[in-house]
Structure formats: C-alpha cells, structure tokens
Write a structure and sequence with these properties.
By secondary structure, the chain is mostly beta strands. It is about 15% helix and about 45% strand. The longest helix is centred in the N-terminal third of the chain and has 30 residues, at about 1-30.
Amino acid sequence: MHYSKNTLILKYGLIVVLVCLIISIFIYMQFFLDEPVFLKHYYDLIMYEDMRMSLHLITNSSDKRSVYKIEFPQLPDDFAYIELDYSINNNEDGYFRTREFAHYNYNELSLLIHVLEENDSEESIVLDKAVVHYSDGDSQEADIGKIILHKDVRRTDILTSTFSESSNDDTSSAGFISDDDIIIESIKSNLDEELSGIFELKMDGEDVRDLNYPINISAKEPLCFESQFKFESEDDRVYNVYDIHGRITAADSQGNKGIKRILNLNYYPWEVFSNERGIIQYLRR
C-alpha cells in the first residue's frame, strides 16, 4: 500500500512536470521572434559633414549575436558610405544601448555616415531597406521606414544660432538671429506628411505650416522655434523613431540664398519601451 502511494505521487508529479514543461514551451514559442524586428525610422537629414544615425531593433533576450555589417541597397556608391560605429557600439552584444527584459531586448545600433566628395548621382536619396549581417553568418533584409539623406545642400551663414535645447518630454527649442535684413522663403521638411498630427514646429508662437511666406525679418530680430511630438492614445506612430532637420530657406538683402538647419527635432520611443509590456503590445499590433 505504501509502495503504491509513492508510485502514485511519482506518477502525478511527473504529469505536473510534463504539463509545466509543455506550458513553458508554448509560452516560449508564443514570444519567440523568428528574426529581429526593426522599428520604422523616419529621418530627414542634411549632411554637411560626417554624422551619426541610429537604428532601433527588438531581439529575443536569448539572441547573443551581434551585427557585424549593414548594407543599404538603395545607397549609391558615390553618395555616402555607412558603417557600424564601433567607437560607441560597445556593450556586450555590440549595440550602443540595450534595455533587457525577460523575453526581449530593445537595442539601439549606432551608424556612421561618411559623406563622399565625389557625387555624380542625386542630391537626395531615400533608404527604406537594409541588409543586416550577423556574427553567426545569418543575414536579414529589414524594412527600416523612410530615411531621407540630403547632400550638396547650400548652407548659409545668414542666420546665426543663439541657442538649441532639447528635453526628454519630446520638446525642443532653438534660436537664431541675423545681422542683415533677410527673407525667409520656407520652413519645411520632406516628411511633413508623415509628421501630420503628431508633430508641431512653431516660430515665435505660430505653426510654421500656417505662416504666409515669404517672411521679412529685420536685422537683429531674434527668431525662436519650439517643437513638440505628441501622440494620441491609439496612434501606432508612437512606436516609430523620428529625427528631422528642419530646413529654413532664407535670402539676404544681396540675394544670397541658402539653408539653415533646425536640429534636435527628434523622438525615440524609450518611454514606450520602458517595460516589456510596451514591446509585446507593439509586436501584437
């Protein structure tokens, strides 16, 4: 009788262990990613010199591979050269920054853009695909959003920057002044359509989309720009990454014309992915 009781306990104990194992496998398969998931990036960048940009991706927490090479099929050979930024991609998995959770990691990968002097191709290009090569020999073609790169843009010293600030509440501000009377012909971005409803940029309190161009600005008249990213609760664009160079097209009293950049117009979904629930909601969209 005692032997039978121990056998019964062992039998049911094995059943419980087996059930727990099956549940664990089911949960693991439910959360497992077949390949890293890249966020959608919406960048509009003016390249006067070499610069950095980043790509954001979600990986399985068990994925210990590193990215060793990245290619952009739409990038002309004579336009720019983009490589991994090894100087700051120095955490243990080869990323710039990583947030680790039970099932997933949220990673930021830094890239260096080298501007090439020789350019017989376009002044602007759009990148929406990347081919990512991993340390284990696997590769992946990823949809990365819409990254617009401009080069050979005529810069101007008509406007002088007086300050530039950004905050972790997705706001920023910048100031400019000119020693000459100038005319502002436009203030815009190539991503105005994608930014509609989530981003506003104001000059001296007025939305730049509502201003009547051209605008006459007197010498020594300060200009103040304020920006904000703001998302409605059901807007899936909150999961995207944004980095915008606002373009002020201006001309002085002698007719010299050029572009001045407004920087720090960016948004990163670090707050959305501050816990794993945010990642799970994103992946289940």
